Amino acid sequence: MPEGIEPAWCLQQIEGRQTAKSKLPRWADTDGVWFPTRLSMEQCSGEVTARYKREIAERLLPEAAMRGVMVDATGGFGVDFTMLAPLFEKSVYVEPNERLCDLARHNFPLLGLEHFKIEHGEFDEHLHLPVRRCDFLFIDPSRRDKAGRKTVAVSDCVPDVSVLLPGLLDRVGVVMIKLSPMLDISRALHDLPGVAEIHVVAVRGECKELLFVCRRGVGETMCRCVNLETAETIIEVGLSQKNVAVDIAGVEQGCFLYEPNAAVLKASMQDVVAATHGLAKLHPMSHLYVSCNYVADFPGRKFRVADYSDFSKQKLRCLLNGVSKTNLTIRNFPTTVAELRKRLKLKEGGDTYLFATTLADNSHVLIKCEKV
């Protein structure tokens, strides 16, 4: 690396630091930190989600475990490792990419880490734990195959944690697995034994990652939906409480309309949330909810309905009179946003919000809203 510095290395550092300003501000503000390739920067956790993992570990582990050992089995750029390692007396970073190991050796002391060990190699099916037993193990399996194509199924990731996990739970107190937000949660639950908690993690409305916390002696699996860097309520529900009945209602002028955030929708917890807040839904498959009274702590976007119409030309003309720019969303509607925007001749932006959706009688409706 920096010995006989090459132009490509300099460009990599400039690009990495620019990305880190928003994704890893602590790293960007630390003099001397070296950054990896663009792909590694894209794949690493953000500082916000790494801090959330630390909060989980602090909540789950007793004080005695905090004096024990933590292993990051897929170290990568080391963002999660640097957040978790200070909690433990001994921390081990395992990574098969030698260049990333070199970056870790250089960066970790600059970021204040003292008691850590770096293991260059694969964490594989032989359970090559660098210690005989550890209290907390974090693993973020690669979601790309040998051809570089993205994968989302647990069994397609490297390493395959569905194979490793039974043996790991004999030797590790808590195993935290980070998986793609594209993953089918039900399928992952089938593939992974001992799941105590599922965390669906969004940041400012965008679903970023799924965390599966596994341990022995699990009772009911809990699902937690968070939207970090917002004031939205954290939703925590046992999976047995997931299926609830929600009343169906129509849309009315002056009522309030709610769209659940990305974490709630990913976890399929929207009906639980609606029932908890006393909301009704427009259609069993639309995932849009309404109420007469405003619910301020609903986890998602909140609107007041200004007007609505069907898709007859005359009613649409009246609804959209004076509207040239709008924020358009479709839910359970037989076209795309781009196609509908073109049909309605509307530009993107402005203060008006439109929802195209289907009501309980299977009629299509366009709802004009103002954001609360």
Helix-strand pattern, N to C?
HHHHHEHEHEEHEHEEEEEHHEEEHEHEE
Query: Beta-sheet strand percentage?
Result: 25-35%
**Termini Cα gap:** 52 Å
Give the rounded overall mean pLDDT: 91
| Oligomerization status of the protein chains | single chain
Total of DSSP H or I helical runs spanning 4+ residues? 13
Overall shape: globular
Profile the largest sheet.
Answer: 9 strands, mixed
Helical residue percent band? 25-40%
Rg on CA atoms, Å: 24 Å
Which secondary-structure class do the elements indicate? alpha/beta
Uncertain spans: none
Count of DSSP E strands? 16
Strand order of the largest sheet: 3-2-1-4-5-7-6-8-9
Task: Describe the structure in brief.
The chain has helices at residues 7-23, 25-28, 38-43, 47-60, 63-66, 79-84, 98-110, 161-168, 185-191, 262-266, 270-276, 313-319, 337-344, and strands at 69-72, 90-95, 116-120, 134-139, 172-179, 195-203, 206-214, 222-228, 235-238, 256-260, 280-281, 289-291, 300-309, 325-331, 347-358, 364-371. The chain is of the alpha/beta class and 372 residues long.
